[in-house]
Amino acid sequence: MTSPVPAAAKRIVVLISGSGSNLQAIIDAVNAGRINGKIEMVISNKDDAYGLERARQADIPGCVIRHTDYSDRDSFDQALIAEIDSHSPDLVILAGFMRIFTPEFVNRYSDRMLNIHPSLLPKYKGLNTHQRAIEDGEARHGCTVHFVTEELDGGPLAVQAAVDILPDDTADSLQQRVHTQEHKIYPLAVEWFCNDRLQLVSGQVQLDGSSLDSQGYQFTE
Ligand code: GAR
Question: Does domain 116-221 have CATH number 3.40.50.170?
């Protein structure tokens, strides 16, 4: 009996704007052999993004495409597309990339682009999610990995992790606990995607061939 041929390693491009701690979690999972993929390029829209240093330390090529160098969103996105497509990626990962895309950009990568957002989507799209959840008296907050569509923070949900909001939580303390969960669910989602287990099929997220419910896979320790 012959064993199945392992799937080819996926080609990955990661977009960042800042610290890159989620990038680091994914680099660590690749280096540990957990993710059947290779990060071909890290692209930042900011020169001082610490994630570029993380890429350098991991011997991953990095580059900067400054949105400030372009007169409009469309020309910036065209420059991003040119760089991304030069690596023929199977997967585009948004890891704290804080720019809004044109529809053309999103549609180009629609079934192969993931984002992580610090809330239990569809709640708390946008910014300052931790503070808003505390102010609203929520009992729980969390993070979500989702496929990216034209709607900001609105694409189909893939994996979600929740944390309890504690009585003395500040936005910072809550953010830290959510970040810890982000660093678990993003590598997990990427691992599944790279093993062809997680897919977007006709707008529905599937895991191992079965549709997930609209909240995605609920991760627990
Ligand atoms: C993460 O908390 C991520 O959820 C958030 O940016 C942070 C980046 O941190 N993304 C968004 O808010 C997207 N709407 P990192 O650079 O340390 O990974």
Answer: yes
Number of helices and strands (H, E) in the chain?
A: 6, 11
**Ligand 1 in contact with 22 (CB < 6 A)?**
yes
Q: How far is CA 51 from the centre of its chain?
A: 14
pTM for the whole thing?
A: 0.96
Given a contact cutoff of 8 angstroms between Cβ atoms, the answer to whether 45 and 67 are in contact is: yes
* Residue 146: both structure tokens together: 């989702």
**Structural element, H or E, at residue 112:** none
Beta bridge partners of 93: 14, 114
- Report the DSSP pairing between strands 204-207 and 210-211: antiparallel
d(CA 88, CA 167): 47
Dump pLDDT digits (tens) for 171-205. Answer: 999 999 999 999 999 999 999 999 999 999 999 99
Choosing from 46, 117, 160 the residue with most ligand 1 atoms within 8 A of its CB, the one to mutate for a pocket test is 117
Which residues are tagged catalytic? 117
Query: Cβ(7)–Cβ(84) under 8 Å?
Result: no
204: β partners: 201
Q: Which fold has domain 9-109?
A: Rossmann fold (3.40.50)
For the chain, domain boundaries: 9-109, 116-221
Do domains 9-109 and 116-221 share one topology? The answer is yes
